[in-house]
Amino acid sequence: MTERIAFALDGERVEVETDPMRRLAAVLHDDLGLTGTNVGCNTGDCGGCTVRVDGRPVSACLVAVAQVEGCEVVTIEAPAPLVA
């Protein structure tokens, strides 16, 4: 079963049609092409897949994509803020 999941990703709205129980890390990497989000341990210990969801750091390998519906997700590949 697939669902349409919408969320903000690095400042832009995205929608994916996928199994809602797929891990966020897999969706970011495989479906959206964001290769900076790396899964190293698949247990949330290594930190390689850390993203921010609504400002809080989470291990994307432990989060189902359905959990970020309507949230703001920021990855390592987000544009850097301008520094004056």
Description of the structure:
By secondary structure, the protein is mainly β. The protein has one domain (3-74): Roll (Ubiquitin-like (UB roll)). The protein is built from 1 helix and 5 strands, in the order ββαβββ. It has one helix spanning 24-31; strands at 3-9, 12-18, 50-53, 56-59, 72-74. A 5-stranded mixed beta sheet has the order 2-1-5-3-4, with helices on one face. The longest helix has 8 residues, at 24-31. The N and C termini lie far apart (48 Å).
Short characterization:
Helix content is 10%, strand content 30%.
Pick out its properties:
single chain; 84 residues; mainly beta; Ubiquitin-like (UB roll); five-stranded mixed beta sheet; 5 strands; 30% strand; globular
Describe the secondary structure blueprint for this structure.
Layout: E1 3-9, E2 12-18, H1 24-31, E3 50-53, E4 56-59, E5 72-74
What is the total number of structural domains?
1
Order of helices and strands: EEHEEE
* Mean pLDDT value: 93
Number of helical runs? Answer: 1
Number of E-state strands: 5
Kindly report the spatial arrangement of strands forming the biggest sheet.
2-1-5-3-4
The proportion of strand residues reads 25-35%
